[in-house]
Write a structure and sequence with these properties.
homodimer, 300 residues, alpha/beta, 6-stranded parallel sheet, 3-stranded mixed sheet, 12 helices
Chain lengths: 300, 300
């Protein structure tokens, strides 16, 4: 337990993820002091008021002095810039991690800017979130039973990897390891693509509202059941964040979208062909996977 | 209140919808006796044990004798056959309704088989459900604040329309009226299409699991967050029911799928073009609709 204890935790970007990480570690009694760095004064004020952080600063030198652990919980696109700003102030005992939704570009930035400190930078991605953002939305249970993927680098010290893994486990996460490339491919399939489908679906409803209604999508949505509600919940997510994820994982996401479009065309063709048997078979196969997944979730 | 009271309610098909309707009316004190007709002995036994129905029978003559209200809560495809079976036993005071997810075909069957009784057949569609089915899954709050679309026919008695509307309101539903054609178009957009997207997404994950993993979709799903979970929840729905909905609303659904595929291709083209501005604009527009919808839901 002693080795997991953090005297000084630095959270760069005290939003939903960074804030919840600090709260979870504090609740677990693993952290003594939390320093926050962030762009929005209102958000930092909220983080202070909610007791998520003990102090806020914009001074990297002061923040990183004596830090055991630094978490970058910022939009992926800012990673390179922030690494550049912090590199010269990093101490040799500081372990660094991030929470970016894409990993190859983060690793690229780390290689470019972290120098020798890369041995203690262990990239991570907690696959958790809500449609809300900011310190106000943070809560310590966010990572409970949620997957956390670590993509260690060949330059990493084993001790740094162990420390990052342990901290996420203490937050309730289910830690697994893979390469940054594999992470980005899998996430394109299970997260980035589904988001694109949800955004397109909302856009489709908007377009259809002009055809079927008087142009107000809310008239149509007022009739919608929980299926559409569930399928579009994630469209309330941050547009900037999703723009960046799209651009960061562009090639892989494009391949996933192409493959999905083929699947959807196959289903459509079954309908064109009036092939009710093929439709039922497809629906049954989907149902079986879904039910097995539900069992798996309930077991874990 | 007296005019809404039902001495004898007949539920044909005591599943999630039929069972919940009976429970809601019983809880509201609006029904004295419930007779159930169904195919599965196990399900009917469950309905009896849970007190959803007071008696079960397979004898249409006995069931319909003295019935005030008959609800057809069966798969849409069986509607014509059941209407044919019941037509000769219907009494002139009996109001009839259904719960089918598509309406033009139900109206077609009613015209074919109900004869003069069509004046008291008011088609309805409660837009409520869960991924579970059967009497075991029924619960009286299922329709609370849920949309219920009535598609009255020009042959309908106003009294019959009023009665059906009132009963659904007493179940907690938000009743609205439209033509069967418009119903089928709107439902294709807000329900049938989303289901197709979810089924294709699950099939896509299955396909991708062979590329990205060792062929077990559960390995991929184990890493998935709540976004994929929400987007595929409805794939646990009955494959037979969705096969039938697809075939019943085939032309309209095909048009919706085509329009959606164009939207998805537009989004993909933005990504091909590296047009991050257009992506952000699209995501923002979706977010605004979603947020307004959430406000609307919370108000209603």
């Amino acid at each position: 337990m002693v080795s997991s204890c953090i005297s000084k935790l630095v959270i760069i970007g005290v939003g939903l993820i960074g804030g919840s990480f600090a709260q979870a570690l504090r609740r677990a009694g693993l952290v003594e002091h939390v320093t926050g760095i962030g762009r929005s004064p209102e958000n930092m004020q909220c983080a202070l008021e909610r007791g998520i952080i003990d102090e806020q600063t914009s001074d990297f030198a002061a923040a990183l002095s004596g830090a055991d652990f630094v978490l970058l919980a910022i939009p992926v696109k800012q990673t390179a810039h922030v690494m550049q700003q912090m590199a010269s102030y990093l101490e040799t005992g500081t372990v660094i991690s991030d929470v970016g939704s894409t990993k190859q570009n983060v690793v690229h930035a780390a290689h470019a800017y972290l120098g020798q400190h890369i041995s203690r930078f262990v990239p991570a991605h907690p696959i958790a979130g809500t449609e809300f953002s900011g310190a106000d939305a943070a809560f310590p249970d966010l990572f409970q039973d949620k997957p956390v993927v670590l993509t260690p680098l060949q330059e990493n010290d084993q001790q740094a990897i162990d420390r990052v893994a342990t901290l996420w486990q203490c937050c309730g996460g289910r830690v697994s390891f893979m390469s940054p490339e594999r992470h980005d491919q899998i996430l394109a399939a299970i997260s980035h693509l589904p988001h694109m489908l949800a955004f397109s679906l909302m856009q489709h409803i908007r377009t259809q509202s002009f055809t079927l209604d008087e142009g107000d999508p809310l008239e149509l949505l007022h009739l919608a059941g929980s299926s559409l509600n569930d399928m579009t919940r994630i469209t309330a997510s941050s547009p900037e964040m999703w723009r960046d994820i799209c651009m960061d994982n562009r090639t892989t996401l494009l391949a996933q979208m192409e493959a999905y479009q083929l699947e959807l065309s196959r289903l459509r063709q079954m309908l064109v062909n009036r092939d009710s048997e093929a439709l039922e078979k497809l629906f049954s196969a989907a149902r079986i996977i879904r039910k097995n997944w539900t069992v798996l979730r309930n077991e874990s």
